[in-house]
């Protein structure tokens, strides 16, 4: 026996059906679609092993109880499975009250670890005291990361033409952001502008086919090897080690963005201003 949705589907002309399926296929976030599909496939595989065909509230409760014992990011998995079930099955599991209550209870004592932040004095101390001969790359990453509240992905993908030296300032654009909103910011502090210009001179001496701004810095020069995402993410920890801060491993790739937002808030900015600051 066919459901109303199936009857409507079968009555739809093939060409319209194809367009609709193509549109549905593009509803997941482009950058993380693979993660969504992986979470959804894991749920389907679990249902298959349990011989479950209907995704009822009891089914979802049993699934999340099962994975909650060895998964920390339970809300993230819920969000991905919810999106896929909504798109592929027109099923809204956010209307399952017992499931939501279970997830809340399961995670109520979970405190996600957040990166520690660098305060203004620590930032200024590293930039002024650390030698350019060994630390200029870290200085530039710090200056740009703090000034623009940049994510490590944004720093990693930054290209040389995204920096425009102009008179006594440097204009920086961040074209590829997590939210899809392009943003620009300006470096105006004279000492910081000088450091970035010095780094650009060193960077542009390298003969390379890549436009990536950050290349590996070794022996006082850049070499033809782009700095990877993990290396960018470890720079806050390296800065913390230089400053002899306790537990430097707690300064993660989120440090620059969190530090930037905190500095802005400390200067009296409201929540909306802080939110706009980081795109």
Automatic annotation (TrEMBL):
Recorded GO MF terms: DNA binding
Gene Ontology biological-process annotations: DNA integration; DNA recombination
UniProtKB keywords: DNA recombination, DNA-binding
Record domain Tyr recombinase: where: 113-279
Protein name: Tyr recombinase domain-containing protein
UniProt source species: Pyrocoelia pectoralis
Source species taxonomy: Eukaryota, Metazoa, Ecdysozoa, Arthropoda, Hexapoda
